[in-house]
Write the structure tokens for this entry.
Amino acid sequence: MKYTNVEDVDKFPKSAIVQEIIVTTVDTIRYGQILELFVENDIRPLFVGPTGTGKTAYIQKVLGNLDPTKFLTIEIGFSAQTHCNQVQDIVDGKLDKRRKDHFGPRFGMRCAVFVDDLNMPKKEFYGA
């Protein structure tokens, strides 16, 4: 994805794909800054809003800019077919096992987990 300023719209190449162009707005800068502050201060945010407003794009941009020596980022995209065991396997697969039933990132690191489309999976028999 390519971020650009509103003034640069006329400078796009003719071969540019519309889905890959992200025009920076006041909102994308605002929410990106808020997310950076939340991550730095260990606050767990939940971004909600209508489809197509760029939530995933600015969250991925902020998480992509985190220092990889200090942060482990895990991205999980939910769908209607996502099961809780799959999510558990994805998260556990990226974390280190510290002792029985205790997982975490390497020592000295912090972990940021991004769950996209949180409302997508259907409920299981027991409500999970």
Summary: The radius of gyration is 17 Å.
